[in-house]
Amino acid sequence: MPIRDFGSVFLSSSNSSHFFKLHNLLHVPSVNKNLINVSQFSRDNGVFLEFFADHCFVKNQVTRETLLQGKIHDGLYVFPHLQRSMPLSVHMHPAVHTASTRTLLNNYDIWHQRLGHASSRVVHHII
User: Fold this and answer.
1) H or E segment at 44?
2) Residue 59 in contact with residue 65, Cβ under 8 Å?
C-alpha cells in the first residue's frame, strides 16, 4: 500500500497527565484504522501491555502503575481516552506540506528542544 506521509506524534490521555510518543508513524490513506506497533510503543514509552478477552492495560514498566485502559471494539483493542497531541515531526510530500504547517511544526520543534524536551502541554503554552 502506498505511504503518503510519515512522522512522530505525542499522544495524551484525557483522564491522565501522561504523554505517550509514537515514532515512525506511517500515513497510509487506504487504511481506515489507526494501528500501533505494540513492541515499538512499549520500547519508546517504557511500558508494557496486559491483554484480556475484553480489555487491556498499558502499565509503567518500573512502577507497574496503570497509565491507560483499552477495551475491545469490533475485534480490536481501542483506547477511547487517547488523543493526538502536537506532532513531533512530520515528513510529507512537498505538495501537501503547506507553509503554515511547516511554520507551526518548526516552532514546536524549536521550543520543544529549547525547553529541554518539555511536555507537549508546556510547549503549547509557550507557543
Assistant:
1) helix 38-45
2) yes
How far is C-alpha 73 from the chain's CA centre?
Answer: 20
The tens digit of pLDDT for each residue in 66-106 reads 999 999 999 999 988 887 765 555 544 444 444 444 444 45
Residue 51 cell numbers, joined: 491483554
Return the biggest CA–CA distance within the chain: 46
Strands 76-78 and 66-73: antiparallel
Angle in degrees, CA 86, 43, 32, rounded to 5:
55
Strands 76-78 and 55-60: unpaired
Q: Are 20 and 10 in contact (CB under 8 A)?
A: yes
